[in-house]
Amino acid sequence: MIKIVVLGFFLFILYSLGSALYYMMNDGAGSQRMMKALAMRIGASIALFGFMMFAFWMGWIQPDGRF
Amino acid sequence: MQSNEQYYVPSGSYWPMVGSVGMAALLGGFASSLHDNHLGTGIMVLGLGIILFMVFGWMGQVVQESEAGHYNLQVDKSFRIGMGWFIFSEVMFFAAFFGALFYAREFSVPWLNGEGNNFWTGELLWPEFKAAWPLVEMPDPQLYPSPDGLIHAWGIPAINTMLLLASGATLTWAHWALLNNKRDQLIYGMIATIVLGVIFIGFQVAEYGEAYGHLNLKMTSGVYGSTFFMLTGFHGFHVVLGTIMLVVILMRVIRGHFDADNHFGFEAVAWYWHFVDVVWLGLFIYVYWLV
């Protein structure tokens, strides 16, 4: 279950990063959409890291692979 | 006629020739050094110097041309397409190394233990071997000495994750400032991002010192050691490169380059930094954590 949540977060991060690339390639200079996609990317990454710390604190995951 | 006016034709340049000479010297010198030719290393270093000279000179010329207003929208588009291909090659590069790690973890190491239809592989080659990841107990310890310990996720790797995430946030803050013409905030955000990147590199060097000096965890420590150092090492190299790129962009910002409507150099470097950050997050999860 935890693995699925982590994977879901990570896929969303890849999607945001990919969107930013698409906007950079197509929008031309000064793309607001690119900046917003990158902001979403960093927000989701911080949330994922926070979730992993929380899951560790709750004892749901151990850093030796025992998910 | 209209299309001729739009099509940008650059003037003749000697930089591609300089780059070719540098590449030839670098690779020729490297090949010679592998054959114990005492001149080889010197030629290799000379080649690297010529390439760095070429990068500095050529990029400097591009910046000058850009600031002089020689570039139109078509040139801007060509830069974006070039960046797209560069990113494609980077994604393939890291996909290959992550793929190698995945293959070793999920397939080849369990096969040595007899999983799947490989019962006799395990039984005949190393019957005592028990597959586990990280691969600390080798099938043949004579060939690949076992490390004394591993780098744990909640030490330097977690700190480095926080540093890179923070640097992504400061860079986004700077990006927002650029789009709103807030130059001071842009400069502070860039400086903070660079400082965080440099601290990351420092911690990574300390981690490698710990691995080699105290844990006996090396490139030669079996497939775990080789994939660990290949992935984290090339990522660290990308952080170094990204930091240099950020420093160049900061210099340009301080000189007054870029505005809210014209800053492709910033956008490309910012995206690259976010990409390197995401690769690290993948490493933290799959190399350090999910072991």
Automatic annotation (TrEMBL), chain B:
Domain Heme-copper oxidase subunit III family profile spans what residues? Answer: 3-291
InterPro entries on file? Cyt_c/ubiquinol_Oxase_su3, Cyt_c_oxase_su3_dom, Cyt_c_oxidase-like_su3, Cyt_c_oxidase_su3-like_sf, Cyt_c_oxidase_su3_a-hlx
Q: Does the keyword Disulfide bond apply?
A: no
Q: Which residues cross the membrane?
A: 12-31, 43-63, 84-104, 151-174, 186-206, 226-250, 271-289
What's the name of the protein? Answer: cytochrome-c oxidase
Q: Name one GO molecular function term.
A: cytochrome-c oxidase activity
Entry-linked Pfam families: COX3
